[in-house]
Design a protein that fits this description.
By secondary structure, the chain is of the alpha/beta class. The protein is 51% helix and 7% strand. It is built from 22 helices and eight strands. It is globular. The N and C termini lie far apart (72 Å).
Length: 409
């Protein structure tokens, strides 16, 4: 059998020198100590599939789906093998040959493409509990409550300022739209405080990352083109997002699935909100430092995915004055990995427990991060380990610092 998608990466797979450097950094290997659950093992299996020595078995599927996409192996590979791209191509090959599943296909076709019914499906997931694969272990897992109405329905499309110094569009993302809306509220408050007009297109859709991680390139490409069409016509300086995964998907992954020029233009205009605030505003003006102790977790999709680690820390150091403490292994994966943590919760929980310990060891009042998904998973881990540390988005804390000043007037 010919596996055309995987074969495109045949030369890249062959560049792996089997040195084993990936073993030292792979979070799944550290827990399972299974050679097939580390980059060089997964690539060996992919090569066997290409050479028809192995079929697309359930075992192969498990080895591929248990990659968190933390990109630690990519960062540490002496041969600079693009392991993350190979894994995504393997997922796409599996999806092409076997499909992505009945429920997942329904969501792709009827929910994600349409956008508006998502809240109802998520509510149904809460009711059905363990019946749906992506909410397995719900009884043990701390999952945030779904909001009564989407974030996009709560604001006008254009939020103006008296004397605007800039104008940005806000790509909201599903986590903020349907779950942790406080992050979105904080983002708007911070942008407004810095005299930035905000445009929030109500027609914007999911970035497509969950479906891309299932191998559904077609739906992801559809979403990329739709979002590009919506955002490209806006007269704004740039597009900001407060979600590390949305940012990585739009800036990097869209262009790997044969996106067109309009999508490339959309991708090129997107920037993480931490980077935007630090590089384009006098954000320290009007700050009132919070008298607490804070540490920071680097989202994999922000630090290794987008090369951003300094700007969130600059914000936290300004907000907390001398209260910032660096945690051990701050850039080690928390175990979330999007759908990984839903399909493989027990494994993701073991990884998250180590992150929770590192957080607790700093004796911080708050752990900050710049990814809604990471925050959700970290909150679950802290709750499971009976830790009292709060988990907040960097932009939430910046907004709180501004609010403190206003309340003191």
């Amino acid at each position: 059998m010919t596996y055309t998608i995987l074969q495109d990466y045949s030369n890249e797979i062959s560049r792996c020198i089997k040195c084993g450097a990936c073993r030292a950094v792979c979070p799944t290997f550290k827990e399972l100590l299974d050679e097939s659950m580390v980059a060089r093992g997964r690539l060996s299996l992919a090569k066997a599939v290409i050479e028809n020595r192995l079929d697309l078995t359930k075992g192969f599927d498990i080895r591929i789906s248990t990659c968190i996409d933390c990109k630690a192996c990519v960062a540490g590979c002496p041969a600079s093998v693009k392991v993350d791209d190979i894994i995504l191509s393997a997922k796409a090959q599996i999806a092409k040959n076997r499909g992505i599943g009945i429920i997942e296909n329904l969501i792709a076709a009827q929910v994600v493409k349409r956008g508006w019914p998502m809240a109802y499906i998520l509510k149904a997931a809460g009711i059905l509990g363990n019946i749906l694969p992506f909410v397995a272990d719900k009884k043990r897992r701390l999952i945030p409550d779904l909001t009564k109405s989407p974030f996009l329905s709560r604001y006008p499309e254009i939020i103006t300022c008296e004397k605007p110094k800039g104008r940005v569009a806000f790509f909201v993302g599903c986590a903020i739209n349907f779950m942790d809306q406080r992050i979105g509220d904080a983002a708007i408050k911070v942008l407004q405080k810095n005299d930035i007009e905000v445009v929030i297109p109500k027609a914007q859709l999911c970035c497509g990352r969950p479906l891309l991680s299932l191998g559904d390139r077609d739906t992801t490409l559809y979403l990329a083109r739709k979002n590009a069409e919506i955002f490209n016509k806006l007269k704004v300086d740039t597009i900001v997002t407060a979600c590390a995964t949305c940012g990585l998907t739009i800036k990097d992954e869209y262009n790997k699935i044969h996106a067109d020029k309009s999508v490339e233009n959309f991708s090129a205009r997107l920037i993480d909100i931490n980077e935007f605030i630090v590089n384009n505003t006098d954000f320290e003006k009007g700050l009132h430092p919070l008298k607490k102790k804070v540490t920071y977790h680097d989202p994999c999709h922000l630090k290794r995915g987008q090369g951003i680690d300094k700007s969130p820390r600059e914000i936290l150091k300004a907000v907390f004055d001398n209260g910032f403490v660096e945690m051990k292994e701050a850039d080690t994966c928390c175990g979330f990995g999007g759908l990984f943590s839903f399909y493989h919760y027990n494994l993701s929980a073991k990884i998250a427990d180590k992150k929770a310990k590192n957080i607790s060891d700093t004796k911080s009042d708050i752990v900050a991060s710049a990814c809604p998904g990471c925050l959700m998973h970290i909150k679950d881990a802290l709750n499971r380990n009976k830790a009292i540390t709060d988990a907040r988005h960097t932009i939430e804390l910046l907004a709180e610092s501004y609010c403190k000043g206003e309340n003191q007037r």
